[in-house]
Design a protein that fits this description.
The protein is an alpha/beta fold. It has eleven helices and twelve strands. Helices cover 37% and strands 18% of the residues. The strands form two sheets. The chain has an eight-stranded parallel β-barrel with strand order 1-4-5-8-9-10-11-12, surrounded by eight helices. Helix 3 links the parallel strand 4 and strand 5.
Length: 323
């Protein structure tokens, strides 16, 4: 027998020598939830180990992560219902919670990479990513709101702006707004393949952002479709995207691979709340080895082609030295 592949698996040294996929802190982005107030740190009930932080505690959490080598953060706001309206005006109001959080993180940690979420649903009284009229999500009218939001984020110090709304044409619109206002240096990480997934439930609990009526199937993609992602990716690349995002990650590894094979842009993937919570629940029951499962999942996302992974596991894998 001339070929015996097991010879290259016989020791840890050799296994490490021939390892094809590597995962480091530089590949990880940590999503963080923000809430108004002082000295607030409340656990998200459906996401064990994940918290909503007031800005003072957010800064402490960022510092803790930075000390571990984790330097990229995606911020998401929990907005009180009384501040929500049809046009998501709180999303770009000067002095709002989110804009203050961006500015404070950049002021205290200028070397951190702050990524911001552009979508109406956390601020929209309808809970949708666009303006709603008679049950219809208006595309072009929504772009104006998204542009105002993105500009406010850039003015507050955002390094990368990540539109997650899935409105047609929003990358080109936002790119033009940013460029016209002197923010040519601010990057766009486009959620180009965001699916209408069942895996978002815990995230919507964390933000209180579930739709009040209907669903998001007229703008988020059908989970049955793969090649449609190429259309979205091509359009966003032409419009000026700097990163392309696939969300969710674990159930869409084939889509990550497909985009990786068809673009030279870096691919990001969102290891979403439902994927996180499934592992945590099973680990608490003793049904899965938590460390091995988490590292296997993150490695699979990297192996599929993701350069950057947004994951709620980001801090724990570094804190516990699992990677």
């Amino acid at each position: 027998m001339l070929q015996r592949p097991r010879r290259n698996r016989k020791s840890e040294v050799i296994r490490q020598m021939i390892k094809e996929t590597h995962l480091t802190a530089a590949n990880l982005i940590f999503p963080l939830f923000i809430v108004d107030g002082q000295n607030q740190k409340t656990e998200v009930s459906s996401m064990p180990g994940i918290f909503r932080y007031s800005i003072d505690n957010l800064l402490r959490e960022v510092e803790s992560c930075m000390n571990l080598g984790l330097k990229s953060f995606d911020l998401f706001p929990y907005i009180e219902e009384s501040l929500k309206d049809k046009y998501a005006s709180e999303s770009y109001r000067e002095g709002s919670l989110y804009l203050r959080a961006i500015a404070e993180v950049k002021r205290h940690f200028p070397e951190a990479c702050v990524i911001t979420d552009v979508a109406m649903d956390p601020y929209n009284s309808d809970g949708h990513d666009g303006i709603v009229e008679n049950g219809v999500i208006l595309n072009d009218e929504t772009l104006e709101v998204l542009g105002k939001m993105a500009l406010a984020h850039a003015q507050s110090g955002a390094d990368i702006i990540a539109p997650s709304d899935m409105m047609d044409g929003r990358i080109g619109y936002i790119r033009q707004v940013l460029d016209d206002n002197g923010f040519q240096h601010v990057s766009l990480m486009s959620y180009c393949a965001k699916y209408a997934s069942a895996f978002y439930g815990p995230f919507r609990d964390a933000l209180g952002s579930a739709p009040k009526a209907g669903d998001k199937k007229t703008y988020q993609m059908d989970p049955a479709n793969q090649r449609e992602a190429l259309i979205e990716a091509s359009l966003d690349e032409q419009e000026g995207a700097d990163f392309l995002m696939v969300k969710p990650a674990l159930a869409y590894l084939d889509v990550i691979k497909l985009l990786k094979d068809h673009t030279d842009l870096p691919i990001a993937a969102y290891n979403v709340s439902g994927e996180y919570s499934m592992i945590k629940a099973a680990a608490q029951k003793g049904w899965l080895d938590e460390q091995r499962t988490i590292t296997e999942v993150l490695t699979s996302i990297r192996r599929a082609g993701a350069t950057a992974i947004l994951s709620y596991h980001s801090k724990e894998v570094l804190l516990n030295k699992w990677i």
